[in-house]
Amino acid sequence: MSALAPLLGGEGAPLIIAELSANHDGSLERALATIDAIAATGAQTVKFQTYRAESMTLDSDGTPFRISDGHGLWAGRRLFDLYREAGTPYEWHAQLFAHARDRGLLPFSSPFDGAGVELLESLDCAVYKIASAELVDLPLIRTVASTGKPMVLSTGMATLAEIDAALSAARGAGSGELVLLSCTAAYPADPAASHLANIAVLRESFGVPVGLSDHTPGIGVPVAAVALGAVAVEKHVMLDRDSGGVDSAFSLVPAELADLVRECAAARAAVGPGPRFGVRPGEEETARLRRSLWVTADVAPGEVVGPENVRALRPAGGLAPALWEDVVGRPFGRPVAAGTPLDWALLGVALD
């Protein structure tokens, strides 16, 4: 059984992936404290990103190597500088993984080159993540898949053909279990751009579990995603939004992550295993209080049923109110006291 299978299966709470990303702000102590805070929320996993700036881009001032001026968060910044600031130092990884495991969390990471995979393998990384922008890097996907470990693949920006190619590359290279994450690769993302209907399309098209990698503010979108069948939710997490940081606009603080864990579990439970109608567990007493036909005045034999002596009232026990047209005008066969539930025997009707 894979490391993900028991977390994704059945009707239990969805898998919550707490993404540290750049929210260590260059401090190992902050990274460790964030792991402690994540563990206290009930999230099951913590995810890192394993890269060096050199594995992401060139140390160049050229326009193609800068974030576009219109970008809401990082406009004009050099890619190399951004990745150097945001990266998690390789020398921290062993301590981060050990600390997460000590806190009962499953640690895993997104590698961005072969060196990152090699480092993560040395730490017995149980699961790998492919970031949205790397979904088209089929050689990287094959390198990760060759470990035989489960893979979680984000699908932001990807066409169905690109997703199919990525899954085929992973399977062809010997991957373990595969999970797709519906994703909008905008930072932050507008909830209206989430297109949660994609979850069902991905599940039906590729026959794999599907979750959500979410960059919207708050928890509303992921809770809705779980109600639509998402088996996992990935959100960036930080200790304190006021401290800033490159991911602060779309990260949750620990209290919000705890809310996410609780509300996603509620959403999963609310959907349940499938449709069910009629009286459900917990409704028995309310069902006992449904209306039925009751005798409301003392009657003598021969008096006929009418609104002056029979009414539809709570609780249940008498004939159904829907039978009113069948009983009105019928004579009582014997004396009946007020407060008696109406039944056919009172009207002299013998039932087989």
TrEMBL record:
SMART domains: SAF. This is N-acetylneuraminate synthase. GO terms for molecular function: N-acylneuraminate-9-phosphate synthase activity. Pfam families: NeuB, SAF. NCBIfam families: PseI. Residues 292-350 form the AFP-like domain. CDD domains: SAF_NeuB_like. One of its GO terms (biological process) is carbohydrate biosynthetic process. Transmembrane segments: none annotated.
